[in-house]
Amino acid sequence: MSTAWIAISAMALIGVGLPIGMITLSSLLRPSVPEDGKRQTYESGEIPTGGTRFRFNVQYYMVALLFVIFDVETAFIFPWVVTYRDALEGGPSVVAVLAPMLAFLGILIVGLVWAWRNGAVSWARSETTDWRSTQNQ
Amino acid sequence: MIEPVQLPDAAALGPALVLGLTALVVFVFDSARPHEPDRGLLAGTTAAGSLLALGVGVWYMIAGVGVPEPDGAGVISLFDGQLVVDQLALFFMLVTAIVTALVAIASYDYMDGHAHQGEYYSLVLLAATGMATMAAANSLVTVFLALELASLPSYALVAILKDNRGSVEAGLKYFLLGALSSAIFVYGISLVYGATGVLQLDLVAEAITGETGQHVLTGNAHDVAGHDGLLGVGIVLLLVGIAFKTASVPLHFWAPEAYEGAPAPIAAFLSSASKAAGFVIAIRVFTTAFPVEATAGLVGFDWSVAFAVLAVATMTIGNFAAAVQENVKRMLAYSSVGHAGYALIGLAGVGAGANELVLGAALMHLFVYAFMNTGAFLFVALAEYWGVGRTFADYNGLGRRAPIACVALTVFMFSLAGIPPLGGFLSKYLLFWGSLQAGMLFVAGALVVNSALSLYYYSRLVKAVWFEEPVTDHGSLAQPVGLYAALIAAAVMTVVVLPGFGPIADSALDAATAVLTS
Amino acid sequence: MMAIEGYVLLSAGLFCIGLFGILTRRNALMFLMAVELMVNAAVINLVAFALYHGTLTGQVFGLFVLGLAAAEVAIGLGIILVLYRNFGTIDVSVPTTMRW
Amino acid sequence: MEGLFTFAPAIVLFPLVAFAITLLVGRYLPLGGAIPGIVATGGSLALSLVMAAAVAGGETTNELVYTWFETPEITFHFGLLIDPLSAAMLVVVSLIAFLVHVFSLSYMNAEGETGLPRYYAGLGLFTFSMLAFVVADNLLMSFVFFELVGLCSFLLIGFWYRTKSAPSAAKKAFLVTRFGDFFFLIGVVAIAASYGTLSFAGDASFVTAAESAIDSETFFGFDADTWVTITGLLVLGGVIGKSAQFPLHTWLPDAMEGPTPVSALIHAATMVAAGVYLVARMFGYYALSPTALAVIAFVGGFTALFAATMGCVKDDVKQVLAYSTISQYGYMMLAMGVGGYVAGVFHLLNHAVFKALLFLGAGAVIIAMHHEQDMWKMGGLKEQMPVTYYSFLAGSLALAGIIPFSGFWSKDEVLYDALIVGLSEPLILAAYAMALLAVFFTGFYTIRMVRLTFHGEPRSEAAESPHAIGLPAKIPLAVLGVLALVGGAMNLKPLEELAGLEVAFLERWLDGQGVGSVDGLTYHAYSETVHYGHEYIGGPEGTVILSAALSLGLALAGAGLAWTLYSGPEPTRHTERLGSLRDLAVANYYQDEYQVWLARGLTLPLARASDRFDQTAIDGVVDGVGSVSRFGGERLRRLQTGQVTDYAALVILGVLALLVVLGINGGWFL
């Protein structure tokens, strides 16, 4: 096993050990005074209302879906970035190396603009936005 | 001969690129006015784009792309062989473009009053792009990508009538089975990759036939024969993925429901273009990557036998089930399963030592089928537009109300049944002849029996529209321009295709020869 | 380095778990997840074989497959959403208006 | 293509143009669009006569018109083959098509029918298909137009689609003939696959290829001669369907639901004739196979008898004619099967004339009777419609085979040819015996029909005051009546045999003596190929006399029996009554006990039995095939439960099954 693996293992060990150690330490040191207010869900100071199992606005999922898709697309940009400099040194012109990625991004942008225009990223129902994709006909 | 202009090589993908760009244009149009879409503009752009793609494809064909060097421009290979543009690819790009154009024109009337116009047309175009790319895919990577590009929009299209329970149910079934089969397909790809170490089809073939004990690219020690189990299972799983796309047994279950529930133009689109694209992949993958003898030597079985079995099972199940349907659209759906069985004969013949004729005949059948089947489903679209109902009995007596459309329907039905003066006859005839020459007597027999049976239910529909008394008075029926235009275009092509069979047969045979000898 | 058989066994196991899920689950989301398991089994294979053969193709293809799987899920969730609107359930065995 | 033959395609194209015109603008034309059809068929007739003259002048043509497409193995093309046979057939087809068009003016137009453009368009397409079929120079082209003929009959039989019976009759005709055509298709493909050519004539014909293959090659594991038999019989499937031979004859009586002029066209010149014409066209091929010939002969002989007995019990005038058609085509098949090529063609041509005449005559009667077809409601029409009566009588006597009408000469020749072969071949002799017996029944039902229709007292109001028929109906009747009388002069073979006169014109025509001919397509060439020996009783002359005497005697006996049975002003329904012999003996119109026995003891049971067989066994088989496939489909569709989880399970099962089957096949588990 090479030394690189040893370093990685050490890093992982420390990464996991540190937070666990600190939580353990603080629980040992702090006084324990249980009361109702402490057990409540923290909502930035607001008093929570209702249960946790309520239905989210469907738009929430829309945004989540958009996120998933565009997030995965970044995975395709990554290899391109890594090889960009090597490719340039290999001989082809800047355009030849850049153009495919520009086309890729262009397509993504057209999609994003379309989704935007169709109200997929509007957070809440408003008078000006058409809710075609979600309305209950 | 037209000199091919000096475009970048990627331009050889012309038809696919044009379709994809048109999809983007439709997106832009729809983004400009998302709330009150201009239906005419969207449908027109779609139709224009597919016709342009058709034109580009025809131009390449005339320019001799794919014809070997001395006479033509040669096969164009792109991205290190991941995509190839040859005669087979162009042939199927044409089929896709034609069907897309017909569907776009017909949808103008059919989708009147529905929401999601922009989505509809752009999804159609994206799916068409996927199908056109499938035609050119020459690596298991591109095959899978193109397949998914064609499939994903199709799922959404089937379910696009969001308030119609049938449409949603159809979409769900199509999607779930599609996802399952694509998972199986990609698993098959991974196994083939494991066995051979490569994904490009010609390299796979090289690895299988070579037996050098070395990896074909890296030269590392790797013996394909030692991984015959992986390869065998992988091939079977690939077969399953392809069977899904072509709606063949045992993956035909989605087809009746998806076609019945989907908007009729989409059913036409899926059962013609999508199926044809599935076949081009089947042909490309199996003839290029898995040479029959070498593969049989490695894995022990001859895959063309599997295709022969599937062909007989598919045509029999499709036709028998079609014979007992009451719902016209569902009958057409099953008949479409039956026709997939006919086309599979082309692949079954590859191993039986047949020459290019059987495969060429299968290509011709797919070409003719694109017109007659699209036309038949478009008639159903027209009937749904009129709101006359879905069963045979509801179609009674339509001939008096809408004679032109019913003449077209008659043409489609008789052509599907394979009656001589129409396009469907000759391709079926050649399939039959070819399979007989290849010595596949059983398959040939099944073909004849099934054709005879199919005449029963096709003529039943003809009888209903012309001879039966209407159950209810249909009143006067509208004549929507777009639907009629698409219907008549398909009917004319179905008729014209027979006397003009020469060029089609030539290009189909050339494509078959090219793919078999490469 | 671990023998290639280990990866193949892992992926085959994952694939079979996926198949099992498809055969037993009626919840559309579970069905979808089972399919994703099968796809991921394939991705494991691809990456492992890429390592084994010393080529990058499999890894890149694995990336593509992941992207497509995400797109597939997006479409699938959309369809499941309209399914719920129309049928009031996401049990996939409920919609049977079309059969035979 | 040179000389006059440049115009040959026009023969075929005229009716097609008429079809297109009538279809597109027919509704704006006078007379319901009849005129383009009449002009076109008239033009075709004129050109056909020109072609016949050209052939008489020693020319023929066998030309390629349009190449469909080629593969390295085979070329598919359309071509023209005009030789004595097709020239003669062209004349007859276009003549009858022309007369039927003219007659339709009376039958359809005068009766105020609607949908006339559709009717005339159908007639045009029908004529076009048949003419193209006649001039076809290869088997695939034949097949295409053969099918188109079937399609047209479907459209025309179902012309009155508002009635209940017409659509189903149309469908039945279509499906039954299609059933036969599937065998034909297999035959065409098999011939193409084994010889690489489908041409009828020339060095590159499949007949030549088959001839040279015999004794040297095998196809698909069969000896070449066995293979010729198999393929020949497959093609024969189409012939049996179209020419309504047993057991695929059931569509024809039902097809009477169509308008009567259409029936005339179907029976005389187009659809039904197509089958026998096809046998004649590729006779060289059948001549190579004694087995195929024997099958043809036996089917023909059996059908001739079988249908003739059924004709005796029908009450509808068109039904009688329908069964007579089936029976007469049986004779032609018999002639072909015994190598009597000339006799078969001779009877085909004669039959075309007199059957067209009879149907048009029946059509005239039906108009007169206000569309009543039951013969028992007719009677006494002789005085009221003399033109119809005398022409119909001429046709009937020709059908019955009474000298000197045309039918006698051709039927006699058929029987003579069968007899001389039958004397050494027992199977043929059986066929001959059946055909001979059928002559008696033919005479019987024909005269019964004439008697009931025209003689006696009117038995209904309509018969007392028949509707007048117009000139367009009378002219075709008169023309055909004359032809039925003198048609026999085409080939007075017995006179040639007995008196040594050179009067067998048709034989010389078909043999290409003094006229144009195509190599290998002559009577002479065929006779050399056919393997039958000939035997005679009392030398050739004696056999001629014996055969003629037998057939004429039996025809006269049948005719005489019917004449006496149905005499008097109010003939009795003999066929309806199944009383005892005693009751019958009381009846005073029986001449002697023999006739009584013949009428009661043999005719009726036989006729009824065959009728019942027809209704139950054959239709039963057809229905049975339908129910089996429906049942199978019903089982299969149950797989489709509608539950997507089931589908997924089935998919996985299917994958496993494929893996297991292919794995076992590949020896993975060993």
From TrEMBL, chain B:
InterPro entries: NADH-Q_OxRdtase_suN/2 (IPR010096), ND/Mrp_TM (IPR001750)
GO MF entries: NADH dehydrogenase (ubiquinone) activity
Superkingdom, taxonomy of origin: Archaea
Primary location group: membrane
Record domain NADH:quinone oxidoreductase/Mrp antiporter transmembrane: where: 137-454
GO cellular component: membrane
Location relative to the cell: Membrane
Keyword entries, A-Z: Membrane, Transmembrane, Transmembrane helix
Membrane-spanning intervals of the chain: 12-29, 41-62, 88-108, 120-137, 143-162, 174-195, 230-254, 266-285, 305-324, 331-352, 358-383, 404-426, 438-458, 481-501
Annotated membrane topology: Multi-pass membrane protein
Record carries keyword RNA-binding: no
GO biological process: ATP synthesis coupled electron transport
Protein name, as recorded: NAD(P)H-quinone oxidoreductase subunit 2
TrEMBL record, chain C:
Location within or outside the cell: Membrane
Membrane topology per record: Multi-pass membrane protein
Single GO cellular component term: NADH dehydrogenase complex
UniProt cross-references to Gene3D superfamilies, sorted A to Z: 1.10.287.3510
Keywords annotated in UniProt: Membrane, Transmembrane, Transmembrane helix, Transport, Ubiquinone
One GO term of the biological process aspect: ATP synthesis coupled electron transport
Pfam families, alphabetized: Oxidored_q2
Keyword Transport: yes
Source superkingdom: Archaea
HAMAP family associated with the record: NDH1_NuoK
Similarity remark: Belongs to the complex I subunit 4L family.
PANTHER family associated with the record: NADH-UBIQUINONE OXIDOREDUCTASE CHAIN 4L, NADH-UBIQUINONE OXIDOREDUCTASE SUBUNIT ND4L
Identification of the protein by name: NADH-ubiquinone oxidoreductase chain 4L
UniProtKB/TrEMBL annotation, chain D:
Predominant localisation class: membrane
InterPro entries from the UniProt entry: NADHpl_OxRdtase_5_subgr, ND/Mrp_TM, NU5C-like, Proton_antipo_N
Residues covered by the NADH-Ubiquinone oxidoreductase (complex I) chain 5 N-terminal domain: 68-120
Topological type in the membrane: Multi-pass membrane protein
GO MF assignments: NADH dehydrogenase (ubiquinone) activity; NADH dehydrogenase activity
All residue ranges annotated as the NADH:quinone oxidoreductase/Mrp antiporter transmembrane domain in the record: 136-422
GO biological process, alphabetically ordered: ATP synthesis coupled electron transport; electron transport coupled proton transport
Pfam families per UniProt: Proton_antipo_M (PF00361), Proton_antipo_N (PF00662)
Subcellular location: Membrane
Cellular component terms per the entry's GO annotation: membrane
Name this protein carries in UniProt: Proton-translocating NADH-quinone oxidoreductase subunit L
Organism expressing this protein natively: Halovivax asiaticus JCM 14624
Classification lineage: Archaea, Methanobacteriati, Methanobacteriota, Stenosarchaea group, Halobacteria
